[in-house]
Amino acid sequence: MTESSTVAQAVDLGARKWILVAAGMFAVAWGGNEFTPLLVMYRLEHGFSAVTVDTFLFAYVLGIVPALLICGPLSDRLGRRPVMLPATAVAAAGSILIALGPDTAALLFAGRVLSGIALGIGMAVGGSWIKELSALDPATADGTGARRAAMSLTAGFALGAGVAGVLAQWAPWPTHLAYAVHVIICIAAGIGMLSVAETRERAQQGRLIDDLKIPSAQHKRFLLIVLPLAPWVFGAASVAYAVLPSLMAERSGGYPIALSALMSVIALGAGFAIQAVGRRIDTPLAARGALVSLSILVLGMLLAAWAASELTIAAALIAAAVLGCGYGMALVSGLQEVQRIAGPDDLAGLTAVFYSLTYLGFAVPAILSAITQQWPGVVTYPMIFTFGAVMAALCWVFVRSRSSAHLERPRI
Predict the structure, then answer these.
(1) What's the rounded Cα separation, in Å, for the pair 369 and 50?
(2) What is the pTM of this model?
Protein backbone atom coordinates (compact mmCIF):
# COMPACT_ATOMS: atom_id res chain seq x y z
CA MET A 1 0.00 0.00 0.00
CA THR A 2 1.44 3.37 -1.03
CA GLU A 3 1.86 6.29 1.35
CA SER A 4 -0.71 8.34 -0.55
CA SER A 5 -3.34 5.61 -0.27
CA THR A 6 -2.62 5.26 3.45
CA VAL A 7 -3.12 8.98 3.95
CA ALA A 8 -6.32 8.86 1.87
CA GLN A 9 -7.69 6.04 4.03
CA ALA A 10 -6.83 7.97 7.20
CA VAL A 11 -8.58 11.05 5.90
CA ASP A 12 -11.62 8.99 4.87
CA LEU A 13 -11.77 7.34 8.30
CA GLY A 14 -11.55 10.75 9.98
CA ALA A 15 -14.31 12.12 7.78
CA ARG A 16 -16.60 9.24 8.74
CA LYS A 17 -16.08 9.93 12.45
CA TRP A 18 -18.52 12.82 12.19
CA ILE A 19 -21.28 10.31 12.96
CA LEU A 20 -19.87 9.81 16.49
CA VAL A 21 -19.92 13.53 17.17
CA ALA A 22 -23.44 13.61 15.74
CA ALA A 23 -24.36 10.95 18.31
CA GLY A 24 -23.07 13.25 21.06
CA MET A 25 -25.17 16.12 19.69
CA PHE A 26 -28.14 13.74 19.47
CA ALA A 27 -27.70 12.79 23.14
CA VAL A 28 -27.55 16.35 24.47
CA ALA A 29 -30.50 17.38 22.27
CA TRP A 30 -32.47 14.41 23.64
CA GLY A 31 -31.82 15.72 27.16
CA GLY A 32 -32.75 19.24 26.21
CA ASN A 33 -36.19 18.31 24.88
CA GLU A 34 -37.25 15.22 26.86
CA PHE A 35 -38.73 17.58 29.46
CA THR A 36 -41.04 19.35 27.01
CA PRO A 37 -43.91 16.82 26.66
CA LEU A 38 -43.81 16.33 30.44
CA LEU A 39 -44.74 19.96 31.09
CA VAL A 40 -48.39 18.89 31.18
CA MET A 41 -47.57 16.18 33.75
CA TYR A 42 -45.75 18.58 36.07
CA ARG A 43 -48.62 21.06 35.81
CA LEU A 44 -51.53 18.63 36.26
CA GLU A 45 -50.03 16.06 38.62
CA HIS A 46 -47.38 17.93 40.61
CA GLY A 47 -49.15 21.21 41.29
CA PHE A 48 -46.97 23.66 39.38
CA SER A 49 -48.67 26.61 37.66
CA ALA A 50 -48.58 27.15 33.89
CA VAL A 51 -46.16 30.07 34.28
CA THR A 52 -43.89 27.96 36.52
CA VAL A 53 -43.65 25.02 34.14
CA ASP A 54 -43.03 27.37 31.22
CA THR A 55 -40.26 28.91 33.32
CA PHE A 56 -38.76 25.43 33.73
CA LEU A 57 -38.86 25.13 29.94
CA PHE A 58 -37.03 28.44 29.59
CA ALA A 59 -34.60 27.67 32.44
CA TYR A 60 -32.30 25.67 30.26
CA VAL A 61 -31.75 28.75 28.11
CA LEU A 62 -29.93 30.16 31.16
CA GLY A 63 -27.47 27.31 30.69
CA ILE A 64 -27.44 27.30 26.91
CA VAL A 65 -26.54 30.92 26.24
CA PRO A 66 -23.46 31.19 28.52
CA ALA A 67 -22.27 27.75 27.37
CA LEU A 68 -22.65 28.78 23.75
CA LEU A 69 -20.94 32.14 24.11
CA ILE A 70 -18.03 30.80 26.21
CA CYS A 71 -17.50 27.26 24.92
CA GLY A 72 -17.73 28.13 21.24
CA PRO A 73 -14.80 30.57 21.31
CA LEU A 74 -13.06 28.38 23.89
CA SER A 75 -13.05 25.50 21.42
CA ASP A 76 -11.64 27.83 18.75
CA ARG A 77 -8.78 28.34 21.22
CA LEU A 78 -8.29 24.88 22.80
CA GLY A 79 -9.72 22.59 20.13
CA ARG A 80 -13.08 20.89 19.70
CA ARG A 81 -12.33 17.65 21.51
CA PRO A 82 -11.53 18.82 25.08
CA VAL A 83 -14.57 21.13 25.17
CA MET A 84 -17.11 18.76 23.58
CA LEU A 85 -16.24 15.54 25.43
CA PRO A 86 -17.73 16.61 28.83
CA ALA A 87 -21.08 17.59 27.26
CA THR A 88 -22.73 14.17 27.55
CA ALA A 89 -21.69 13.84 31.21
CA VAL A 90 -23.23 17.23 32.01
CA ALA A 91 -26.40 16.22 30.16
CA ALA A 92 -26.64 13.01 32.19
CA ALA A 93 -26.19 14.97 35.42
CA GLY A 94 -29.07 17.24 34.43
CA SER A 95 -31.39 14.27 33.88
CA ILE A 96 -30.40 12.77 37.22
CA LEU A 97 -31.26 15.99 39.07
CA ILE A 98 -34.64 16.26 37.35
CA ALA A 99 -35.44 12.65 38.17
CA LEU A 100 -34.53 13.19 41.81
CA GLY A 101 -36.84 16.18 42.28
CA PRO A 102 -40.21 15.86 40.50
CA ASP A 103 -41.88 17.90 43.26
CA THR A 104 -38.97 20.24 43.99
CA ALA A 105 -38.77 23.38 41.90
CA ALA A 106 -35.11 24.01 42.77
CA LEU A 107 -33.98 20.58 41.56
CA LEU A 108 -36.05 20.79 38.40
CA PHE A 109 -34.67 24.24 37.68
CA ALA A 110 -31.06 23.18 38.35
CA GLY A 111 -31.42 20.07 36.22
CA ARG A 112 -32.80 22.11 33.35
CA VAL A 113 -29.88 24.54 33.58
CA LEU A 114 -27.40 21.64 33.39
CA SER A 115 -29.30 20.26 30.39
CA GLY A 116 -28.94 23.67 28.82
CA ILE A 117 -25.20 23.85 29.45
CA ALA A 118 -24.73 20.46 27.79
CA LEU A 119 -26.87 21.45 24.82
CA GLY A 120 -25.03 24.76 24.45
CA ILE A 121 -21.70 22.93 24.27
CA GLY A 122 -23.08 20.45 21.77
CA MET A 123 -24.61 23.06 19.50
CA ALA A 124 -21.61 25.38 19.28
CA VAL A 125 -18.71 22.94 19.55
CA GLY A 126 -20.23 19.74 18.20
CA GLY A 127 -21.59 21.52 15.15
CA SER A 128 -18.19 23.04 14.37
CA TRP A 129 -16.49 19.67 14.90
CA ILE A 130 -18.91 17.98 12.49
CA LYS A 131 -18.35 20.71 9.93
CA GLU A 132 -14.59 20.27 10.08
CA LEU A 133 -14.77 16.47 9.98
CA SER A 134 -17.09 16.68 6.98
CA ALA A 135 -14.64 18.98 5.23
CA LEU A 136 -11.95 16.24 5.38
CA ASP A 137 -13.81 14.56 2.54
CA PRO A 138 -13.13 16.58 -0.64
CA ALA A 139 -16.35 15.23 -2.17
CA THR A 140 -18.47 16.83 0.56
CA ALA A 141 -20.93 19.34 -0.88
CA ASP A 142 -21.33 22.88 0.33
CA GLY A 143 -23.54 23.03 3.43
CA THR A 144 -23.22 19.34 4.34
CA GLY A 145 -21.71 20.09 7.75
CA ALA A 146 -24.55 22.44 8.64
CA ARG A 147 -27.17 19.95 7.46
CA ARG A 148 -25.62 17.09 9.46
CA ALA A 149 -25.44 19.20 12.62
CA ALA A 150 -29.03 20.45 12.25
CA MET A 151 -30.39 16.96 11.58
CA SER A 152 -28.51 15.48 14.56
CA LEU A 153 -30.06 18.07 16.87
CA THR A 154 -33.54 17.73 15.43
CA ALA A 155 -33.46 13.92 15.64
CA GLY A 156 -32.46 14.18 19.31
CA PHE A 157 -35.13 16.77 20.03
CA ALA A 158 -37.82 14.65 18.36
CA LEU A 159 -36.96 11.23 19.77
CA GLY A 160 -36.23 12.61 23.22
CA ALA A 161 -39.66 14.19 23.40
CA GLY A 162 -41.44 11.23 21.84
CA VAL A 163 -39.88 8.53 24.01
CA ALA A 164 -40.21 10.57 27.21
CA GLY A 165 -43.87 11.27 26.52
CA VAL A 166 -44.71 7.62 25.82
CA LEU A 167 -42.86 6.40 28.90
CA ALA A 168 -44.43 9.05 31.15
CA GLN A 169 -47.94 8.31 29.86
CA TRP A 170 -47.92 4.49 29.88
CA ALA A 171 -44.77 3.08 31.50
CA PRO A 172 -44.05 2.73 35.24
CA TRP A 173 -42.09 5.39 37.15
CA PRO A 174 -43.26 8.29 34.93
CA THR A 175 -40.99 10.85 36.58
CA HIS A 176 -37.88 8.64 36.48
CA LEU A 177 -37.76 6.12 33.64
CA ALA A 178 -37.38 8.55 30.74
CA TYR A 179 -34.43 10.24 32.44
CA ALA A 180 -32.77 6.87 33.15
CA VAL A 181 -32.98 6.03 29.43
CA HIS A 182 -31.33 9.35 28.62
CA VAL A 183 -28.45 8.71 31.03
CA ILE A 184 -27.71 5.41 29.24
CA ILE A 185 -27.73 7.17 25.85
CA CYS A 186 -25.32 9.81 27.18
CA ILE A 187 -22.88 7.17 28.42
CA ALA A 188 -22.87 5.38 25.06
CA ALA A 189 -22.45 8.61 23.06
CA GLY A 190 -19.71 9.89 25.37
CA ILE A 191 -17.70 6.69 24.96
CA GLY A 192 -18.12 6.88 21.18
CA MET A 193 -16.72 10.41 20.96
CA LEU A 194 -13.50 9.36 22.70
CA SER A 195 -12.24 7.85 19.43
CA VAL A 196 -12.74 11.02 17.36
CA ALA A 197 -9.61 12.98 16.50
CA GLU A 198 -9.10 16.70 17.00
CA THR A 199 -9.70 18.86 13.91
CA ARG A 200 -8.36 22.19 15.15
CA GLU A 201 -4.87 22.99 16.33
CA ARG A 202 -4.51 24.55 19.74
CA ALA A 203 -4.24 28.31 19.34
CA GLN A 204 -1.32 30.29 20.66
CA GLN A 205 -1.79 31.61 24.16
CA GLY A 206 -3.44 34.95 24.63
CA ARG A 207 -6.27 36.49 26.60
CA LEU A 208 -9.46 34.46 26.66
CA ILE A 209 -11.47 37.69 26.74
CA ASP A 210 -10.09 38.43 23.27
CA ASP A 211 -11.28 35.03 22.05
CA LEU A 212 -14.80 35.84 23.21
CA LYS A 213 -14.97 38.66 20.70
CA ILE A 214 -16.63 37.49 17.47
CA PRO A 215 -15.79 39.97 14.69
CA SER A 216 -17.95 38.18 12.12
CA ALA A 217 -21.03 38.81 14.29
CA GLN A 218 -20.82 42.37 12.95
CA HIS A 219 -20.85 41.17 9.35
CA LYS A 220 -23.68 42.93 7.55
CA ARG A 221 -25.13 39.72 6.18
CA PHE A 222 -25.32 38.28 9.68
CA LEU A 223 -27.10 41.39 10.93
CA LEU A 224 -29.47 41.73 7.98
CA ILE A 225 -30.31 38.07 7.21
CA VAL A 226 -29.45 35.82 10.15
CA LEU A 227 -30.49 38.14 12.98
CA PRO A 228 -34.12 38.60 11.82
CA LEU A 229 -34.43 34.85 11.22
CA ALA A 230 -32.81 33.35 14.32
CA PRO A 231 -35.47 33.93 17.05
CA TRP A 232 -38.10 32.28 14.84
CA VAL A 233 -36.26 28.93 15.02
CA PHE A 234 -37.32 28.01 18.54
CA GLY A 235 -40.10 30.57 18.66
CA ALA A 236 -41.91 28.39 16.11
CA ALA A 237 -40.86 25.16 17.80
CA SER A 238 -42.01 26.28 21.25
CA VAL A 239 -45.45 27.23 19.92
CA ALA A 240 -45.74 23.83 18.21
CA TYR A 241 -44.75 21.58 21.11
CA ALA A 242 -45.21 23.67 24.26
CA VAL A 243 -47.98 26.25 23.80
CA LEU A 244 -50.41 24.32 21.60
CA PRO A 245 -50.23 21.08 23.66
CA SER A 246 -51.02 23.10 26.79
CA LEU A 247 -54.10 24.57 25.11
CA MET A 248 -55.17 21.08 24.02
CA ALA A 249 -54.69 19.35 27.40
CA GLU A 250 -58.42 19.22 28.17
CA ARG A 251 -59.24 17.98 24.64
CA SER A 252 -56.72 15.10 24.69
CA GLY A 253 -59.15 12.32 25.56
CA GLY A 254 -57.45 11.73 28.88
CA TYR A 255 -53.94 11.39 27.43
CA PRO A 256 -52.44 14.90 27.67
CA ILE A 257 -48.82 13.73 27.97
CA ALA A 258 -49.11 11.41 24.99
CA LEU A 259 -50.72 14.17 22.89
CA SER A 260 -47.94 16.56 23.86
CA ALA A 261 -45.35 13.96 22.85
CA LEU A 262 -47.12 13.31 19.56
CA MET A 263 -47.18 17.01 18.71
CA SER A 264 -43.47 17.26 19.54
CA VAL A 265 -42.64 14.31 17.31
CA ILE A 266 -44.77 15.62 14.45
CA ALA A 267 -43.30 19.12 14.64
CA LEU A 268 -39.70 17.96 14.93
CA GLY A 269 -40.20 15.11 12.48
CA ALA A 270 -41.41 17.65 9.92
CA GLY A 271 -38.41 19.80 10.75
CA PHE A 272 -36.07 16.84 10.28
CA ALA A 273 -37.65 15.97 6.93
CA ILE A 274 -37.33 19.47 5.50
CA GLN A 275 -33.72 19.70 6.70
CA ALA A 276 -32.91 16.69 4.52
CA VAL A 277 -33.73 18.79 1.45
CA GLY A 278 -32.73 22.13 2.95
CA ARG A 279 -29.37 22.17 1.17
CA ARG A 280 -31.17 22.03 -2.19
CA ILE A 281 -33.48 24.87 -1.22
CA ASP A 282 -30.75 27.10 0.19
CA THR A 283 -28.33 28.83 -2.17
CA PRO A 284 -25.15 30.88 -1.55
CA LEU A 285 -26.36 33.38 -4.15
CA ALA A 286 -29.30 34.72 -2.12
CA ALA A 287 -31.26 34.23 1.10
CA ARG A 288 -33.67 31.77 -0.49
CA GLY A 289 -33.56 29.36 2.48
CA ALA A 290 -34.40 32.13 4.94
CA LEU A 291 -37.24 33.39 2.75
CA VAL A 292 -38.73 29.91 2.37
CA SER A 293 -38.60 29.38 6.12
CA LEU A 294 -40.28 32.72 6.87
CA SER A 295 -42.99 31.98 4.30
CA ILE A 296 -43.70 28.67 6.03
CA LEU A 297 -43.74 30.43 9.41
CA VAL A 298 -46.36 32.94 8.28
CA LEU A 299 -48.61 30.03 7.31
CA GLY A 300 -47.73 28.15 10.50
CA MET A 301 -48.66 31.04 12.78
CA LEU A 302 -51.97 31.51 10.98
CA LEU A 303 -52.68 27.80 11.40
CA ALA A 304 -51.76 28.09 15.09
CA ALA A 305 -54.33 30.89 15.43
CA TRP A 306 -56.91 28.64 13.77
CA ALA A 307 -56.00 25.71 16.03
CA ALA A 308 -56.21 27.89 19.15
CA SER A 309 -59.66 29.01 18.04
CA GLU A 310 -61.02 25.58 17.04
CA LEU A 311 -59.28 23.54 19.76
CA THR A 312 -59.46 20.31 17.77
CA ILE A 313 -56.70 17.73 17.72
CA ALA A 314 -56.59 17.69 13.90
CA ALA A 315 -56.10 21.47 13.70
CA ALA A 316 -53.38 21.36 16.37
CA LEU A 317 -51.48 18.57 14.60
CA ILE A 318 -51.62 20.38 11.25
CA ALA A 319 -50.34 23.59 12.83
CA ALA A 320 -47.55 21.71 14.64
CA ALA A 321 -46.40 20.06 11.40
CA VAL A 322 -46.22 23.35 9.48
CA LEU A 323 -44.51 25.17 12.34
CA GLY A 324 -42.05 22.27 12.53
CA CYS A 325 -41.20 22.74 8.85
CA GLY A 326 -40.61 26.43 9.52
CA TYR A 327 -38.37 25.60 12.48
CA GLY A 328 -36.34 23.07 10.49
CA MET A 329 -35.83 25.28 7.47
CA ALA A 330 -34.95 28.31 9.61
CA LEU A 331 -32.37 26.29 11.56
CA VAL A 332 -30.56 24.75 8.60
CA SER A 333 -30.61 27.92 6.45
CA GLY A 334 -29.38 30.02 9.36
CA LEU A 335 -26.52 27.59 10.00
CA GLN A 336 -25.56 27.57 6.34
CA GLU A 337 -25.45 31.38 6.30
CA VAL A 338 -23.29 31.31 9.44
CA GLN A 339 -20.84 28.80 7.98
CA ARG A 340 -20.47 30.90 4.85
CA ILE A 341 -19.85 34.07 6.84
CA ALA A 342 -17.48 32.75 9.53
CA GLY A 343 -13.75 32.31 9.11
CA PRO A 344 -11.84 29.32 10.54
CA ASP A 345 -10.91 31.26 13.67
CA ASP A 346 -14.45 32.16 14.73
CA LEU A 347 -16.67 29.45 13.28
CA ALA A 348 -17.64 28.06 16.69
CA GLY A 349 -18.00 31.57 18.09
CA LEU A 350 -20.38 32.77 15.39
CA THR A 351 -22.32 29.50 15.59
CA ALA A 352 -22.68 30.19 19.31
CA VAL A 353 -24.04 33.68 18.68
CA PHE A 354 -26.56 32.30 16.18
CA TYR A 355 -27.81 29.60 18.55
CA SER A 356 -28.04 32.11 21.41
CA LEU A 357 -30.33 34.22 19.28
CA THR A 358 -32.44 31.20 18.29
CA TYR A 359 -33.05 30.31 21.92
CA LEU A 360 -34.64 33.66 22.63
CA GLY A 361 -37.66 31.98 21.09
CA PHE A 362 -37.99 29.70 24.11
CA ALA A 363 -39.13 32.66 26.16
CA VAL A 364 -42.32 32.68 24.10
CA PRO A 365 -44.40 30.18 26.18
CA ALA A 366 -43.67 31.91 29.50
CA ILE A 367 -44.37 35.34 28.00
CA LEU A 368 -47.65 34.20 26.44
CA SER A 369 -48.78 32.53 29.68
CA ALA A 370 -48.07 35.71 31.63
CA ILE A 371 -49.87 37.92 29.08
CA THR A 372 -53.00 35.79 28.89
CA GLN A 373 -53.17 35.51 32.69
CA GLN A 374 -52.69 39.25 33.10
CA TRP A 375 -55.48 40.10 30.65
CA PRO A 376 -57.78 37.05 30.55
CA GLY A 377 -60.40 37.24 27.83
CA VAL A 378 -58.90 40.46 26.46
CA VAL A 379 -55.72 39.07 24.88
CA THR A 380 -56.33 35.62 23.41
CA TYR A 381 -54.05 33.06 21.81
CA PRO A 382 -55.67 33.41 18.35
CA MET A 383 -54.95 37.14 18.51
CA ILE A 384 -51.35 36.55 19.60
CA PHE A 385 -50.65 33.99 16.87
CA THR A 386 -52.16 36.25 14.21
CA PHE A 387 -49.86 39.02 15.39
CA GLY A 388 -46.99 36.53 15.09
CA ALA A 389 -47.93 35.84 11.47
CA VAL A 390 -47.83 39.57 10.73
CA MET A 391 -44.38 39.87 12.32
CA ALA A 392 -43.07 36.90 10.32
CA ALA A 393 -44.38 38.54 7.15
CA LEU A 394 -42.58 41.79 8.01
CA CYS A 395 -39.36 39.84 8.56
CA TRP A 396 -39.87 38.23 5.12
CA VAL A 397 -40.16 41.65 3.48
CA PHE A 398 -37.03 42.88 5.28
CA VAL A 399 -34.93 39.83 4.38
CA ARG A 400 -36.19 39.82 0.77
CA SER A 401 -35.00 43.40 0.30
CA ARG A 402 -31.47 42.36 1.30
CA SER A 403 -31.42 38.81 -0.01
CA SER A 404 -28.43 39.16 -2.36
CA ALA A 405 -26.46 41.80 -0.47
CA HIS A 406 -23.05 41.35 1.22
CA LEU A 407 -22.51 37.83 -0.09
CA GLU A 408 -19.37 35.88 0.80
CA ARG A 409 -17.72 33.20 -1.20
CA PRO A 410 -19.22 29.89 -0.06
CA ARG A 411 -17.22 27.56 2.16
CA ILE A 412 -17.85 23.87 2.80
Answers:
(1) 7
(2) 0.80
